[in-house]
Every structure is written in structure tokens, then in C-alpha cells.
Amino acid sequence: MLLVPDTGLLFWMTVSFAVVLAVLVRYAFPVILRAMESRRTQIEKGIGDALQAEKRLADADMLAGKVMAEAEASRAEIMRKAEQARRAMLEQARSEAEQEAARRMARARVEIEELRRHTIDSAMGQIAGLSLQIAEKVVDHELESDEKQKQLIEQFLTQSHG
Amino acid sequence: MKRLLAILLALVLVPGLVRAQHEKLNVRDIVMDHLGDSYGWHITTVGHRHITIPLPVIVLGSDHRWHLFSSSHLDHGAAYEGFSIAPEGDHKGRLVENGVRPPLDISLTKNSTALLINTLVLLLLLLPVARHYRRGARVPPKGMPGAVEMLVEYIEDEVIEPCVGPEYRRYAPYLLTVFFFILVNNFMGLIPFFPGGGNVTGNVAVTMTLALATFVVVNLSGTREYWREIFWPDVPTWLKIPAPIMPAIEFVGIFTKPFALMIRLFANVLAGHAVILGLVCVIFMTVSMGTAVNAGMTVVAALFGIFMLLLEVLVAFIQAYVFTLLSSVFIGMARVKHDHDH
Question: How much is the pTM?
């Protein structure tokens, strides 16, 4: 009995299914599917945009890395040149200082030499004067005896030191 | 959820229990009454009083005139305008005119009414989703329309597109209609009280109409290659000439596919209902075995009944899915285009 289709139900089923199919195919599913398709396209576009943005970001990162590397290289070059300049300046300053020192040393030596010569000359003069004074003293006194001459010289020397 | 299930089960069990205490139980009649159709919609029984919604009887009589009257005129075996409900025999439970079936009976029976109610529910479920988008909304709807849209998307993406192929958009509205039609009718059939409880998809007339619709769509969509595969398949010649063995098999296949669709849905839903009804009847059958046995069996039957009901929820979805999937596959096979270069 259950396997024999009832004509009444068959009729109502055909009618209701036809109505449902007509209504849904005409008014529901095209709208829903179109909206879903539109959203899907929008999502895909969003994903595409996001991927592009990610790629651009990666490119920018790469560019930034490159710029940073260049900047780093440039900084290293500048540092190297600065170091070279510093060393050159230091070397030059040292050289100049050494030259100046040598010049001053030479001048000092000359001055010392002149001073020594002058001192020697002055001492020679004084010695000559003293010799003259001694000679005068000797001449002023009678050269009575050797003992007396010696005494006279010691007295002179004592006076000279005093 | 537990409370809801308990209430649902009680609504099914209590009237039967009350009746079972007073009259001898005929399990077959109870099961067949629930699985079969009727001219009135029985809601419940209070004592000896049956609360039934009368439905319109629309029948073409042997006088070739249409008769329209309420089924309440036929209560308790009464005859009206020469029509009555056969109490026994081949036409038991059906309308007869002087003992024979009338030429055409398109009465709004319980199942027909349930079908129309389910149709209305289906439209109320799907049209708001369309209205939501027709208003220009760009975000998905929330609540039930949102769930419906999720199902639409799932069926379209996972079933229709891969099975039908590149031209799936053309067939998506039909296949989605079939899916939701079966799903709503299956779910409504699981509700044990009015307006649910109609055994719509467990009725061969309903599944036959659906299978016929798919049959028509499949064969109208058939490409030249599809028909060539049927009448001149790519097999050794001796299988085609002199006896067209393979063409005959292929030709029969045109009809077996929708037939399988029809029987699969009908049998699965019917079996689910029958098992639940059988479990409910266990309670009535054990009434005469004493209180202890009856109480124990009531608990067992109730637990199994709840389990079966949950299983039926799953089956309701699976059967709608399978019908749509196979329909999509058949359409996809009919749209096949061979590349002769390979």
C-alpha cells in the first residue's frame, strides 16, 4: 500500500513543488546566489588587494633593506675616510710637533752654546781680572820669601771666596 | 534541549498510553495509521474523544462532477454524497464511492496539507534571505536567514559546483530548491505534533515527483555525447551488434537512476519513522506484562526513541544532501563533453 503513489498527493506535490520551484528560482535563489557571488568576488578582490599590499610591503622592506645596506656601506666609507683623515691629521700634527720640537731644541742648543760660550768668556775675563789682581797684589808686596808669597796667595783666595 | 525532547516524547506517548490501557493494542494499525495518510488530521485523543482537524475532500465522482465537502462528514464510517472511507479491503482508509475508488481523488489529506504547510514554511524561510539582499544589504543576514545562507553556500560550493561542472550556475537554483524542499519536509516530519508530523518525504508520491523532476532536468540537459554513450557506448562492437546489450543496459540506466533516488529517500525516511513508532509501541505492548516490565521497557523505549529521533535529525539532513548530490552527479554526467583530440 505504501508503494502505491496516491493520486491526490501526487497532484498536490506536483502543484506545490512547481510553485516552490517557480517562486524560488524566480525570486529567491538568483538574488541570493548573485549576492553571494558578489560578496565572494569582493572577498577575492580584498584578498588580492591584501596580497598585493603584502607584496608591496615586502618590496618596500626589501628596498628599505637595500637603502639601509647602502647607508651602512656609506657610513662605513665615511667612517673609514674620517679615520684616514684623523690619522693623517694626527700624523701631520705629530710631524709638525716633532719638527717644531727639533727646531726649538736646535735653537735651545744654540742658545745654550752661546750662553756657555758667554759664560766661559765671562769666566775667562774674570779669571784674567783675578789674575791681574793677584799679580797686582803680588807686585804690591815685596817678594820676600816663598813662604810669604804662598801666604799672600792663600789670603787672596780666601778674600776672593769670601 | 532535554526538556524539549521529553515534552515531544510525552506528546507522542501519553495519548497512546491512555488508549492502550482501555483497548487491545494493534501495533500494525498504529504504525500504518501514522505512516499512511488520512482525510482528517488527528491531533490527540482525550479519553475516548479524538481531536481531529477536518480537511477538505475534493473528488471527481463517477457522475463526472466534482464534489467538495469536509472530511468531518465521513467520521465514524458515515457516507456523504455517496462517498465513504473504506474500513477494510484493498482501499482501506481511502475514499470510495459505493465500494470503488472514484476516478480522481485530489482531497487535501493529512500528508497533502502537511506538504502545503511545509511549502509555506520553506518559502517563509528562503524569501527573507532574498529580501535581505534585494534591499541592497552587503553583509550576510543573521539568525535563521544566516543559517539558510550558510547552507546555500555549502551546497553550492561543495556539491553543485564540483558535481555539475562549469555550467553549475544554470542548475544551482533547481538543485537548491530540491535540497531545501526535502530538508524542510524531513524536519517537519520529525515534529510529532501539528503542524508537523506529516509523513511527506516518507511517501512514495512525493519522492516520485522529486525523482521525476530530476529525471526531466537530467535528460533535457543531456549533451550529444551523453545520448551517444547510451545508444552507442564506447564498448566492443559485439556488445552492441547484433544484440544491443550495452545500449539496453544504458537505456535502463536512464530510469534506474531516478528510481534509486525515489526509493532511497522514501525508504530511509519511512524506516526512520517506522523504527520510532515501533519503539513507542513497545511501551504499549508491555502494558499487559505488569507495571515493572512496562516501566523498564518504557525507559528503554524512551531512551532509544530519543536516540532514534536524534538520528533522524541527522538522516533528514543526509537524505536531502544525498538526493541533491546524486541529482548533481546525474546532471554532471549528462553534461559530459568528450575531448576527441585525446
Answer: 0.74
C-alpha distances out from residue A137 to A35, A130, A162, B82, B230, Å: 144, 10, 17, 196, 167
| Any B CB within 8 A of A41 CB | no
Q: B40 or A76: whose pLDDT is higher?
A: A76
What digits encode the pLDDT tens for the residues B37-64? 888 888 888 877 888 889 999 999 888 8
Q: Where are the alpha helices (DSSP H) in chain A?
A: 7-23, 29-140, 146-161
Residue B342 pLDDT class (50, 70, 90 cuts): very low
* CA–CA min distance A45, chain B (Å): 15
Residue A13 has pLDDT above 90, yes or no: yes
Best CA proximity match to B216, nearest among B331, B56, B100: B331
Residue B5 has pLDDT above 70, yes or no: no
Q: Could you give phi then psi for residue B52, rounded to 5 degrees?
A: -130, 135
User: Taking CB atoms and an 8 Å limit, are B210 and A19 in contact across chains?
Assistant: no
Number of domains in chain A: 1
Q: For residue A75, is it within any domain? A: yes
For residue range B203-244, what is the model confidence (pLDDT) as tens digits?
Answer: 899 999 999 999 999 999 999 999 998 888 888 888 888 888
Q: Per the domain annotation, does A2 fall within a domain? A: no
The residue ranges of DSSP E strands in chain B, in sequence order, are 40-46, 49-54, 56-60, 66-70, 83-85, 95-97, 104-105
Comparing alpha-carbon positions, the chain B residue that sits nearest to A25 is B173
| Interatomic CA distance for residues B186 and B313, integer angstroms | 8
Q: Is position A93 within any domain? A: yes
Residue of A nearest to B182 (CA): A17
| A57 CA to centre of own chain | 32
Range of the domain at A124: 9-161
Question: Is A1 contained in some domain?
Answer: no
